[in-house]
Amino acid sequence: IDGAFLSPSADEDDKSKPAGSDGERRGVKRQRDEKDEHGRAYYEFREEAYNSRSKSPPPPEEEPREGEDDETVVILDTYTSDLHFKASKDRYGGQPLFFEKFPSLWSGARSTHGVTKGKICFEAKVTQYLPVKEGSAEVPLFRVGWSVDFSHSQLGEDEFSYGYDGRGLKVENGRFEEFGQSFGENDVIGCFANFEGEELVELSFSKNGEELGTAFQIRKEFLGDRALLPHVLCKNCVVELNFGQKDEPFFPIPEDYVFIHAVPVEDRVRTPLPPKTTEECEVLLMVGLPGSGKTQWAQKHTQENREKRYNILGTETVLHQMRTKGPEVEELDAKSRDLLIQQAAQCLSKLVQIAPRAKRNFILDQ
Question: Which domain holds residue 115?
């Protein structure tokens, strides 16, 4: 009981004094201190309560994408992409799904095929900056490069993942360094992988036909038999890709390079196909108090069962995709951090609603 027992005589003398045990009158709403943050569990619970008021029928299954089973084409892979990456109909491009409501959310996708030999290239064009809300400090960003199967969708932020960032940076395993030039709307980035060296694989880039030089050198003994796959990561922008399906490239490429689309089928490495029906998919629901280790268990289980390619639907995963990555780690104050957690929980609600459409295995970490 949030109150104190007072004698009749004391009541007369202390009418002007607070009656609550923490210095407040009963019935008066306590103003929350800005430093008094809510945790992720609070916002997850609030979103869950809000969305439980009315149950709508589950969304229809996602329509089969063109060319999904066609081994002769190289397109973006909607099975391994972020759930919130909206691929174009022909799957030679895409954009973030929730750019209006969650402008800070990165979304990424890889191609269906990778390569292990030769001198291979592809092109990526930032075709449009998406509008942001008035007063928003978020700016469109784009990152393009190469990664291996099972690497994170956040290009350049784990091992064997190599990206060229629109801020004039290159990034590998979370390490950012200055490289080339900044780029943005209407710019075309050429991405080149040279496997013909004896010991090294060299990755280089160009901007609007101008060569920028080698960005990464990978020792073949470390890379092993892993194939490198074209990879894009965008925030508030639309990207168009040329894997070689176009009659003419955006800009001329060096004579000794070929587009990945032109590589013979037997020389390309295909990522696994998705399950054919949702009945073949698996959903795990995490149950436990906040802080009991659900997220850690989900991450460990995902690593131990990589062939199932679980998508973890959780606030921590969304938070990781919302934070602006760069050479300087941005420190958020309590109010900004609280708002970010709130947005992440709202975004998670949206992802949980669209997840039943996708033929994937999920872990709901909520």
Answer: 85-270
